[in-house]
């Protein structure tokens, strides 16, 4: 399990763009499971949408990408590098995510070669699938 300080030692992201609160499980270079607690106090809810707050799909994808980056950057040979979101394929959104929800972020890496990686990410609220996507990572 990784807490916030340990996550920040791996990822360069900081508030307001650090979207992983805790890593529950990780196998370096293979997979990671993390959580994002969605709080009504997040600035995004001032405009998305007033009176009907919904956590944007693009931020759900970013949270999945950060989870995948953690799995990649825990590999000793990649420590200290930066992982960028290089592409998104087959993204699907199944459930609205609202303040008070906890997103369970699951990413399984499927390939890595010459500075490029890929994986499949799924975000759940409880047992319900909120979103899923194939992700491409650029490692530098």
TrEMBL record:
**Domain of life assignment:** Bacteria
Reactions that this protein is recorded to catalyse: a (3R)-hydroxyacyl-[ACP] = a (2E)-enoyl-[ACP] + H2O
Q: Which residues form the active site?
A: 48
Q: Which UniProt keywords apply?
A: Cytoplasm, Lipid A biosynthesis, Lipid biosynthesis, Lipid metabolism, Lyase
- SUPFAM superfamilies according to UniProt: Thioesterase/thiol ester dehydrase-isomerase (SSF54637)
Primary localisation category = cytoplasm
| Cellular location(s) | Cytoplasm
Q: State the PANTHER family in the record.
A: 3-HYDROXYACYL-[ACYL-CARRIER-PROTEIN] DEHYDRATASE
What does this protein's UniProt record list under function? Answer: Involved in unsaturated fatty acids biosynthesis. Catalyzes the dehydration of short chain beta-hydroxyacyl-ACPs and long chain saturated and unsaturated beta-hydroxyacyl-ACPs.
Q: What is this protein called?
A: 3-hydroxyacyl-[acyl-carrier-protein] dehydratase FabZ
């Amino acid at each position: 399990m990784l807490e916030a300080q340990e996550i920040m030692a791996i990822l360069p992201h900081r508030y307001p763009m650090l979207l992983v609160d805790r890593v529950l499980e990780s196998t370096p270079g293979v997979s990671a499971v993390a959580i994002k607690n969605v709080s009504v106090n997040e600035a995004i809810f001032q405009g998305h949408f007033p009176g009907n707050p919904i956590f944007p799909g693009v931020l759900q994808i970013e949270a999945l990408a950060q989870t995948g980056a953690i799995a990649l950057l825990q590999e000793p040979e990649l420590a200290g590098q930066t992982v960028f979101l290089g592409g998104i394929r087959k993204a699907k959104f199944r459930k609205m995510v609202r303040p008070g929800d906890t997103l369970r972020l699951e990413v399984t890496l499927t390939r890595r070669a010459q500075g490029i990686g890929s994986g499949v990410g799924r975000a759940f609220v409880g047992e319900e699938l909120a979103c899923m996507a194939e992700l491409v990572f650029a490692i530098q």
